Amino acid sequence: MEVKILSAKFDIEDSHLLKTAEQHGAYSTLDKLFSMKPADVIEEVKNSGLRGRGGAGFPAGIKWSFLPKDLDRPVYLAVNSDESEPATFKDRYILVRDPHMLIEGIIICSYAIGCHVSYIYIRGEYTSQVRILQQAIDEAYEAGYLGENVAGKGFSLDVTVHRGAGAYICGEETALLESIEGKKGQPRSKPPFPAVVGLYDCPTIINNVQSIASLPFIIENGADAYKAYGTEKSSGTHLFGISGHVEKPGLYELPLGLPLMEVIEKVAGGVWKNRKLKGVIPGGSSTPVLTVDEAKTVTLDYESMAEHKTMFGSGGIVVLDETVDMVKLVENLIDFYHHESCGQCTPCREGLGWMLKIVKKLIAGDGSMSDIDLLVELCDNIEMKTVCVLSAACTMPVRSYLNKFRHEFEAYAKDKGSPHNDLGKE
Amino acid sequence: MAEMVKLFVNGQEVEVEAGKNLIDAVGAVGIEIPHFCYHPALGADGNCRMCLVGIEDGRPPLVPACKTPAQEGMKVRLDTDYIKKIQRDILEFELINHPVDCPVCDQAGECTLQDYYMTYSLEDSRMQVPQVTKGKKMDFGCGVIHDQERCVLCGRCVRFTRQITKTGELGIVNRTDAARVNIFPGKPLDNRYALNIVDICPVGAMTSEDFRFKQRAWFLKRDEGICHGCSRGCNIYIDHHREKYKDDIIYRYRARTNLLVNGYFICDEGRLSYRLENDNRQTETLVSTNKVSFDEGIKAVLDTLRAANKVLMLVSPDCTLEQMWAVKSIAALFGAALSGYSAAYIKDGDGDDYLICDDKAANRKGLELLQINTDRATFESDLNETDLFINFDNDLFFTPCNDPLKPLLESKRSIAICSRKLPVFSTASIVLPTASYTEYGGSVINENGVLQRFSKAVSKNVEGHDILEITRLLGGPVIDAERAWLEIRETVPILADVQPEHIPAEGLTLTTSEDDHVGS
């Protein structure tokens, strides 16, 4: 099932070094790239059907075409490497195992959109990753792949690594821009969108690491070669981080469109310890949970996920076995999003803390049935009333647990907190 | 005239100014869109989410009104159950961690949160878990006291220090519901406009050390006035109250919006200058240090005046145009020399590039227009020759520049007509109390030539007489302000067409450019 497009060099020793990377084809697309017109590059990416791999799945080529024409100001590219969504661990592999693929992608994107200054926003916790990435950038500068004359083609491009300080919200694209500008990482109101008013008030394209890293393959082999993978509307491959209660957790590159259960069983070795499956988080903690029945019918593509009222997200699949206490999972989930709320706008700032306290009250045995109803209502009251979607990243999954596993919450309310599920005890 | 567009609010067609955001645009025609964080001087931030409105046929379905420009044909919805529920929900979020200590909160009665709760919510609290606790009674400096628990994190105060004073003392620290407004350690507020933060705070989070616990807002009578602290002529609210058995006391000044003069703010010095109206006031009539009735005082002044050979009258640059005219008229009547010498009112270098002026006189332009001599040399030589010096409330010792004149002044027989007990008036043989600017009405012209009118706000138990009235009692020809204006219009070309009762609320810019008078 596994394919090797993005991960082609992952298992090669010293693949992060320029010499090794070059031996395996790094920067080989640049001749072809600079023989193309920027508009043709955008067209090729549009045709490939590449969608944003950060979670939202917006078509990358179309995003680029939102840039205003005939600009008198610079265009910036910001590569989102904040990778802060819990259960997501795909971009870090690219940063460490094939950073030159990312740099090559940055060159391709920058050429296409006319950008000469690009930023890689990397989460602060990625300390070893940032070291390896910076080493790769330094090597690329030395070899002339970056700088005033990229690959001798007369195109100038600088790449700067900007380290975050550990805030989840800085993965939100406008908070990321604020953070690069040296301000407190808080999302901006949209419109205007970054493609029009972005970094330093200039048009800015923000793409996820994996989206950018997918570009060399598309330029080298053409849109059709990329579309040969995946489904009609969800083309290409994706790095899936499979974690939780499976026998073989890890990162797997798979074409889009595979049945989820098949992937869990054949790729990840199935639910561990011969336990029963209870649910699956399909794409990082912010995506609504799937029940066993739903997991059996869903496929790993944007459309099927939407049909199941959840999201493809970041490809961070978490398998939950029968021992999982969904109420405590929700407590953990809200705790995270409450902690990471930037505190800027009212519903998220005040509401998530309230929800957390209510769940804690339930777990402590002091809750009642009306608390469960209140939780559901608060999800509605917070969601979509905020500046950004952080609150929705919390309320959407929480609502799914409340709806699909309501009996577990009710058990806490009725039994006054006595553990309702002893299967987890060994 | 600004371009107008027609749009619909709750199905009703209204005509509003194009380009303004919805809060301001429909607010101008009397339709309130509730909001905390938006302030016209500070721009839209969009953090409070209280102004979310629905735009029919629009995408996205829910927009913050503060960030949405009014457009032709727009169909704005405030009255749907959905929007009303959002307003209730946002208020619930604002209130869950709010102490609701209205009974002991200074803001009560003029609190946006309180008002909105009464208008848009009235729901019972559903908060049954412990509240977030934060800092109380924090001294932020400059007389600003902060209560973090009452704060709705609208950030107006933070934006004020960043955008208006550009001093940036405040910030919001921490995230999530631990977010709070704070100063940097050891770096309190340090600017001359800090108390505006108390005005712009929509809730009781920022209170004035000076005002807090002195009065409940609903007891205060709010009158409009003009600050006399300097020649800017900032527009103010005079908040005053007469407690039972006590006098009419001013408790605070607050900024009153006038985009032509002061914008939305005033300086702290001006704000606190209300104290001068309450304290150290001259209320007694004195003849040779003996207390007498006011009528006896007037008689004593008249007797002295008639006996004098060479009289010098000095008028204050704080006087209104009407008062100046009245003093000018009585000086002419008695053949007295008249001066408006007031160099002491200028504090060189004290002004800034915002509101504060070097010149602390409220109506120096008035002296110029009425051609009252302000020259020092003339004043000094007239003073040398005079055998009676009558000072109409001019504080010659406001700054030390006239200290060398002290011996000469003290050697002269003098009459003080004054509103305050000041050293300059202490050697007068006759002292007549007079009203101060919150106790009379009139017209003043600010540094930029904006003519403004103000009315009497405060009525003291023992009312001081307006200087104009005092000149009338002394036999002067100006019997009232109307008469003064009649004569002023005849004498001063630039004021020839001014109808005092028709001076616009924001004032009238007097044009002195040559071009404006060509052909007239």
Instruction: Give the percentage of residues in beta strands of chain A.
Output: 5-15%
User: How many distinct folded domains of chain B?
Assistant: 3
Biggest beta sheet attributes of chain B: 7 strands, mixed
Residue-averaged pLDDT of chain A, rounded?
95
Strand order in the largest sheet of chain A = 6-5-9-7-8
Principal-axes shape call of chain B: elongated
Give the spatial strand order of the biggest sheet of chain B. 15-14-20-19-18-16-17
SSE blueprint:
The complex is a heterodimer of chains A (426) and B (520).
Chain A: H1 18-23, H2 30-35, H3 38-48, H4 60-64, E1 76-81, H5 91-97, H6 99-113, E2 117-122, H7 127-142, E3 158-163, H8 173-180, E4 204-208, H9 209-213, H10 215-221, H11 223-227, E5 237-244, E6 250-255, H12 260-267, E7 277-281, E8 290-291, H13 292-297, H14 302-307, E9 316-321, H15 326-340, H16 346-363, H17 369-382, H18 390-404, H19 406-414
Parallel strand pairs in A: 1-2, 1-4, 2-3, 5-9
Antiparallel strand pairs in A: 5-6, 7-8, 7-9
Helix pairs in contact in A: 3-6, 5-6, 15-16, 15-18, 16-17, 17-18
Chain B: E1 4-9, E2 12-17, H1 22-27, E3 52-55, E4 62-64, E5 75-77, H2 81-96, H3 112-121, E6 138-139, E7 144-146, H4 156-164, E8 170-173, E9 180-183, H5 196-200, E10 206-208, E11 221-226, E12 235-242, E13 248-255, H6 268-272, H7 274-278, E14 285-287, E15 290-292, H8 294-307, E16 311-315, H9 321-333, E17 337-339, H10 364-369, H11 376-385, E18 388-392, H12 406-411, E19 414-418, E20 430-433, E21 442-445, E22 450-454, H13 467-473, H14 481-491, E23 508-509
Parallel strand pairs in B: 1-5, 16-17, 16-18, 18-19, 19-20
Antiparallel strand pairs in B: 1-2, 3-4, 3-5, 6-7, 7-10, 8-9, 11-12, 12-13, 14-15, 14-20, 21-22, 22-23
Helix pairs in contact in B: 2-3, 9-13, 9-14
Task: Please outline what is shown here.
Chain A has 426 residues and is of the alpha/beta class. Chain A has helices at residues 18-23, 30-35, 38-48, 60-64, 91-97, 99-113, 127-142, 173-180, 209-213, 215-221, 223-227, 260-267, 292-297, 302-307, 326-340, 346-363, 369-382, 390-404, 406-414; strands at residues 76-81, 117-122, 158-163, 204-208, 237-244, 250-255, 277-281, 290-291, 316-321. In chain A, strands 6-5-9-7-8 form a five-stranded mixed beta sheet. A four-stranded parallel beta sheet of chain A has the order 3-2-1-4, sandwiched between helices.
